[in-house]
Design goal:
alpha/beta; TIM Barrel; 12 strands; ten-stranded mixed β-sheet
C-alpha cells in the first residue's frame, strides 16, 4: 500500500489554522519588567546603552508602572540605586533604606501589583561586588548573614517575592531560614540559580551603576562553558527551598534552560538580559531587522525552551499587546 503524501502546509494555509495548532504561546502572566530606581523626584533618566529604558525616581516609577499595570503588566522586579554606598551595602539592610521605601510606596499606590526585589549588594556597595569584600575576595558566609538582614527588611516593607542573585553558596538556605524565623514562611524565593559570568551584562551595569571597581565576578558567577554544573547549582537551590529557579542570561543558554526544565520540572524563569535587549535595539536602529518581530521571536524561543517566567525589558510592551 502506498504511503499517504503528508502535506505539512495544510496546517499553515492561513492565520486561523496556524493559530489553532500553535504549540507555544506567550502570555502576559509570565512576563516581568525590570525597573531601575534612584533617589530624587521627577527623575526619568534615559539609559544610553538601553534605548527605551530609564532610571526612575519613586514618583515617576509609580506613574509609569500604573500605566503599564492598566495595560496588562502584573509584575515588576526592582533594582535600587541608593544615594549612599559603602563597603557592605548597608542601605540595603535598613528598613529606612532606599529600596524599602520604594517597595512601600509602590505597594501603597498599587497594592495588586506583584513586586519582586533583587537581593544582592552590587548596587549598594562602593566596590560593586555582590557581597562582603576583603583582600581574599568576596566572603561567602559573611555575605549570607547580610543577605538575611536584607530580605527581612524587604519582607517587612511588603515585597511579594525575593530574588537572590549573588550566587553565594547556601544563599537560598540562609534566606529561607531567615524568612521562616522572621514570620514570613509564605514569602517565595526566586533564585538566580544558574547565573553565568556573562559578557551580556554590560548595559545593566550602566543602568544599575554596579560595575565592579576592580576585578570581576568570575569567582562566584558560573563559567559559560559549564552545563552539568548548572544542574548541580539548581538542584542545590531546590533542596534549600527555592520556589522558582532562574537561568541568566537566556538566549545564549537555552540549552541550559531546557536541561533544567526537563530534569527538575520546577517553575523556571529566564532573564533576557540587557545585552540581549541592546543588540536588538541597535540592529533595529540601523534598519537591519524588524524590532518587534525579532523581540517576539526571541521571547517565544525562551518560552519554547522551557521558561514559565521571562524577565525582559520588552515585558511591558508585550504584556500590553498580549
Amino acid at each position: 500500500m502506498q504511503t499517504p503524501f503528508i502535506r505539512f502546509r495544510r496546517l499553515r494555509r492561513n492565520s486561523v489554522i496556524r493559530d489553532m495548532v500553535q504549540e507555544t504561546r506567550l502570555t502576559s502572566d509570565g512576563l516581568i519588567q525590570p525597573f531601575f530606581i534612584r533617589p530624587g523626584e521627577g527623575i526619568r533618566n534615559p539609559i544610553s546603552s538601553m534605548p527605551g529604558q530609564f532610571q526612575y525616581s519613586i514618583d515617576t516609577l509609580i506613574k509609569e508602572v500604573a500605566k503599564m499595570y492598566d495595560a496588562g503588566l502584573k509584575s515588576v522586579i526592582l533594582y535600587g540605586l541608593p544615594q549612599h554606598k559603602d563597603a557592605v551595602g548597608s542601605d540595603a539592610m535598613s528598613e529606612d533604606g532606599f529600596i524599602c521605601r520604594a517597595i512601600r510606596r509602590l505597594k501603597e499606590q498599587l497594592p495588586e501589583l506583584y513586586v519582586i526585589s533583587d537581593v544582592c549588594f552590587c548596587e549598594y556597595s562602593d566596590h560593586g561586588h555582590c557581597g562582603v569584600l576583603t583582600a581574599d575576595g568576596v566572603q561567602n558566609d559573611a555575605t549570607l548573614e547580610n543577605l538575611q538582614k536584607q530580605v527581612l527588611v524587604q519582607a517587612r516593607s511588603g515585597v511579594d517575592m525575593v530574588a537572590p542573585s549573588g550566587m553565594m553558596d547556601g544563599m537560598v538556605r540562609a534566606i529561607r531560614a531567615a524568612l521562616d524565623k522572621g514570620g514570613f514562611p509564605e514569602l517565595p524565593i526566586m533564585s538566580y540559580a544558574a547565573k553565568y559570568s556573562s559578557s551580556f551584562y554590560g548595559p545593566f551595569r550602566d543602568a544599575a551603576e554596579s560595575a565592579p571597581q576592580h576585578g570581576d565576578r568570575k569567582a562566584y558567577q558560573m563559567n559559560p562553558a559549564n552545563s552539568n554544573e548548572a544542574l548541580r547549582e539548581v538542584e542545590q537551590d531546590i533542596l534549600e527551598g527555592a520556589d522558582i529557579v532562574m537561568v541568566k542570561p537566556a538566549l545564549a543558554y537555552l540549552d541550559i534552560l531546557r536541561r533544567i526544565k526537563d530534569e527538575f520540572r520546577m517553575p523556571t524563569a529566564a532573564y533576557q538580559v540587557s545585552g540581549e535587549y541592546a543588540m536588538i535595539k541597535a540592529a533595529a536602529a540601523n534598519g537591519w531587522l524588524n524590532e518587534q518581530a525579532v523581540a517576539y521571536e526571541t521571547l517565544l524561543s525562551i518560552k519554547r525552551a522551557g521558561a514559565d517566567i521571562i524577565i525582559s525589558y520588552y515585558a511591558a510592551d508585550f504584556a500590553a499587546q498580549l
